[in-house]
Amino acid sequence: MPLLYRRILLKLSGEALAGGRGWGIDEATLKGFATTVKNVVNGGTQVGLVIGGGNFFRGVSASSVIDRVSADHMGMLATVMNALAFKGALMSHGVQCRVMSAIPMATIAEPMVSQQAIRHLEDGAVVVFAGGTGNPFFTTDTNAALRALETGADVLIKATKVNGIYDKDPVKHGDARFFPELDFDTVLSLNLGVMDATAVSLCREHGLELRVINIFEQDGLARLLNGEAVGSVVRARRLVNG
Q: Which of 9, 29, 121, 225 is the most exposed place for a label (fewest CB within 10 A)?
């Protein structure tokens, strides 16, 4: 059976890397995610990856004395640390990996150049896009949408701790409604918090499909790529309505 997508952009939160610790990087969790990505790559899918930095720094909300621009730059640096950690984990699994940063730091990461990123992906390497967009006031969600579009990804997959999109937090609310399929306009109008509005708008404007899955679900990502109904999907309105 052919794979559902040839090239994906996977968005992973920094908090997810912390596992149950709440801060930093949990080694067992990191190894588990690396194994998941390795299996996907070995199955023939090209993988780009964006990882947040919330396990190290939560941005301006973490301090009353750090200005927004400085806080955002600190958050971008946190994503570089996570990218290097993920690269190390993948390399230990025998998977080639490149870290490309929007913030110049030539000794540890390549500069973000979309055509070079595509070449790395075509050569079978996982590419981790770090440093955000290189600009303050933009989230890693927006960075993920941007890199997905720049590299011609077939889908943007947001990996979360729940199995898709709900109208409210299903962990806190037993009556939360699950949405297996939505259009971008509905996501924005209902303010469902799938990703920030800029990221969702980018996906909508350029016809980039968005998937939301539970990264902790056993083989969930691999099953999605093999065509199973996993998580939630967001598409343009005309595609949802046929």
A: 29
Residue 130 lies in a domain: yes
Q: CA geometry: angle at 144 spanning 100 and 121, to 5°?
A: 50
Asked if residue 15 lies in contact with residue 75, where contact means CB atoms within 8 angstroms, the answer is no
Spatial neighbors of 89 by CB under 8 A, at least 6 apart, are 30, 31, 33, 34
CB 237 within 8 A of CB 184: yes
Query: Rounded to whole angstroms, how far apart are CA atoms 234 and 210?
Result: 5
What CATH number is given to the structural domain containing 77? 3.40.1160.10
User: Can you tell me the distance from the alpha carbon of 11 to that of 195, in angstroms, rounded to the nearest whole number?
Assistant: 10
Tens of pLDDT along the chain (242 residues) come to 678 999 999 999 999 999 888 899 999 999 999 999 999 999 999 999 999 999 998 765 656 788 989 999 999 999 999 999 999 999 999 999 999 999 999 999 999 999 999 999 999 999 999 999 999 999 999 999 999 999 999 999 999 989 999 998 888 988 999 999 999 999 999 999 899 999 999 999 999 999 999 999 888 999 999 999 999 999 987 654 44
Residue with tokens 């927004």: 68
Residue 1, in any domain of the structure: no
| H-state helical runs in the chain | 14-17, 27-42, 68-92, 114-122, 140-150, 184-189, 197-206, 220-225, 237-240
Residue 222 lies inside a defined structural domain of this protein:
yes
In a domain, 66, yes or no: yes
Domain count, the chain: 1
Two tokens, residue 107: 């000794």
Domain extent at residue 109:
7-240
